[in-house]
Input
Amino acid sequence: MKLIFEKGAPGQHLSLMPPCDVPVVTPKRPRTEPLPLPHVSETELTRHYTALAKRVHGVNDGFYPLGSCTMKYNPKINEDMAALPGFTQVHPLQPEETVQGCMEVYAEAERLLDEITGMDAMTFQPAAGAHGEFTGLLLIKAYHHHRGDTARTKIIVPDSAHGTNPASAVMAGFSVVNIPSAPDGCVDVEALKAAVGPDTAGLMLTNPNTVGIFDKNILEITRIVHEAGGLCYYDGANLNAVMGVVRPGDMGFDVIHLNLHKTFSTPHGGGGPGSGAVGCKEILRPFLPGPVVVKGESGYHFEKPEHSIGRVKDFYGNFTVVVKALTYILTLGKEGIPEAAKNAVLNANYMMKRLKEKYTMAYDEICMHEFVMCLEDLKEETGISAMDIAKGLLDNGIHPPTMYFPLIVHEALMIEPTETESKETLDEACDVFLKLWDLAHTNPQALHDAPVTTPVRRLDEVGAARNPVLRYTTE
Amino acid sequence: MNFPAELKYSKSHEWVKMIDDTTALVGITDFAQSELGDLVFINLPAEGDAVTKEESFCDVESVKAVSDVMSPVTGTVAEVNSELEDEPQKLNEAPYEAWIAKISDISDFEELLDAAAYEAFIQK
Output
C-alpha cells in the first residue's frame, strides 16, 4: 500500500482547521523551502490510518501471547482517566501550585508502587524499560562512587537475561560478567560465588526468570552479592507473575525498574509511550534523577535529590502513562493485584499442561507467568521450525509467541498468555497449537507456505536487516 | 558440514589458522554460522586492539540475535577483514574464507581441538 507521502496531490489539505487564535510571528531565520509534508484531505488521512489499523494485530484483535512482554488487556477506563482535561490541558512549565492534582498522581503512584515492590522511593522519568535499567545502573554507580569506591566496575548478568541488561550495563560504563545458568534455568549459585569480588558493582536479575521459573535461591543470591559489596538490580520484566504476592524489596533487591506498559496495563510497543519507573531502597534515594515530587506543609513541590544523577528525560517522564497505571492499581486494589498475578500463573500452567501433550517443554515443571517450548525435536522430525509454527499461528488469528528467545533454548517459543484471557480463548489457542503440530507431521509444506491469509506473506527479514530503509525520502 | 583438517577449533566455535608461530587468522566455524542463521551485521574489532583468549572480541548479528565471538588466542589485532562489513553473508557462504581478524603477537591459546575432535564435540 502507498505511504501517506505518496498519496494526495499538492493543494489538498485539511479544511476544518480552526482559525489561528495566536499572533503570527515571523521567525528570525524563516524557512526557505516548505516542509515536505503530505498533501491529503481529511478523508484520505482518516482512510489511510484506518487501512493501516486493519492490517495490524493488537490485543484488541485477538490472542497475543508474546512471552516476556505481558500483552495484557488495557482496561478502557485507563484511557478515560488519562483523557481528563486536568491531566491533558496542562503544561510541564506551569507553576507548581496550579498542577497539584498531577503531582498527587506521581506521589500516589509512587506510594502504591513502593508498597507493591518493597521499595522506598521511585522516579517516573525513564521512558521505557531499558531506559529504566540504564537509570538504575547509574544509581548503583553513583552510590559506589559517592562512597569513594571506584573499583566496582563489573555488573554480573546471567546468560538467560534479556539482551537489554548487558547493553544497559555497557551504556552505563560497566563491563559485563556473564554467568551460566544451572540446568534448571536458574542462577548457578556456585558460578555466582566465583564471579563476585571487590570489582562487583552489582547483579542484574529477573525473578521469575526468563524461562518462567521462580529462583528459589533468591535470598542466597542477593546475600552473596551484598556480602561482596555489590547491589542487586531487579529487572521488572516479569513482575506480573508475582505482583502483590512477593516483593522484590523483600527478596533483597536494592533497585528495580517497572515496565508500567507491561505489568500495569498501559499501551505497549507501537501503542503508546512506555514508562520504565525506577524504584530504590533508602540508600539510593539521594541519587535519584530530579526533580521528584515531595509533599510539604503547603502541598506538593518538586525537589532535586541531594546527590542526584541529574535528569534522564526532560520534564517528568510520560505523565499520562502514570495516570493509567495508577488507575489500574486503584481499580484492582489490594485484592485484585495479587489475583491478577495468580491468574497469570494459572493461565500459563493451564496452557503448558495442555500443550505438553505434544510439544516438548524446555523446563518441564510448574511455571510462573510464562513457559518456553523447545521445538528442536519437531524440527528434526519434520523440518518444521519454531518460525514455521509462528507463521502458521498468524493464519489462525493468533499473534506468535516470542521466538528464538531465550538464547539458551534452541528453537524456542516462549508463551505468556497473561491473566486477561478466558479459559475459552486459551482452549482455542491450545487447539490451534496442537493442530499445527499435527500439520507439521502430515503436511509440512502447508506450514512452510504459511502465512497465506495475512496482508503480506513471509517477509525478507534478512534483506530488511542487511539493507534497511528506515525513512521515506523524496528523492 | 565441513571442518578442514588444517585448522584448529575452539569449543566456542571459532577456527584458527596458524600463519606462523605467533600469527593466526580467526573466523567462525561452519557449525557456528549454521546455528546462527543468516548473518546481517558484524561488529569488527579495531586494528591494534588487544584480545584475550576466551573473551569476546567481536560480535555478529543474525535476524535472531546478537552473539559474541570469543577470541581463541591472546594477542593483538593486526588486521581485520573489512569486506565483511558490507557483506556479512560471506560468513554464511564461505565460513573458512571469511576470516574475521588476523591476530599477531600471540602469547597464549585456549585449548584448541583438531577437526575430528571438534566434530565429535559438536555431535554431543
